[in-house]
Amino acid sequence: MFRTTLRTVVLSSLSLVAACAFARQDTNEPLDATTVAALQAGVTTARDVTERLGAPTEVVQLGRRTAYRYDATSAKSTVLFLLLVNFGNQDTRSDRLWVFFDEKDVLSHYGVSFGTHRTQYAMPWEDVHEASDNASRDADRPGVVR
């Protein structure tokens, strides 16, 4: 009788030790793909870019030319706490835009990547880079063409 009660207490206590946690961290607003697509080389000025996108994360002087960097990051974390073993995963993805201006502050070209909308909660044994997952998330984000 005592052993059965002890075993029940121990097993019940162990079930209380197991837990999971979810966390999310976002830095800056995701870039608006439609706004980025409206930038035109030879037409858009540095002032136009800052009016549409706000202050850049970084400004780089390239001789008499300039480059602005805009970025946003999204991270989702999952942790499974067990008695002796813990499992965790963090999926971090970014939107990044570099815009390059000539010596007259007119846009010469830009490069952009969109990824914040693809972050997902997952355990370490799950693949967060499946093409079907990415395609469905891309379809839900306006202006992103893959």
Topology, please?
Elements: H1 2-17, E1 19-27, H2 33-37, H3 46-53, E2 58-62, E3 65-81, E4 86-101, E5 107-113, H4 131-140
Antiparallel strand pairs: 1-3, 2-3, 3-4, 4-5
Provide a descriptive summary of the structure in words.
- The chain is of the alpha+beta class and 146 residues long.
- The chain has one domain.
- It has 4 helices and 5 strands, in the order αβααββββα.
- Strands 1, 2, 3, 4 and 5 form a 5-stranded antiparallel sheet that branches.
- The longest helix has 16 residues, at 2-17.
- The termini are far apart.
In brief:
This protein is an alpha+beta fold. Helix content is 27%, strand content 37%.
Strand content: 35-45%
Low-confidence stretches: none
Strands, total number: 5
Spell the H/E element sequence: HEHHEEEEH
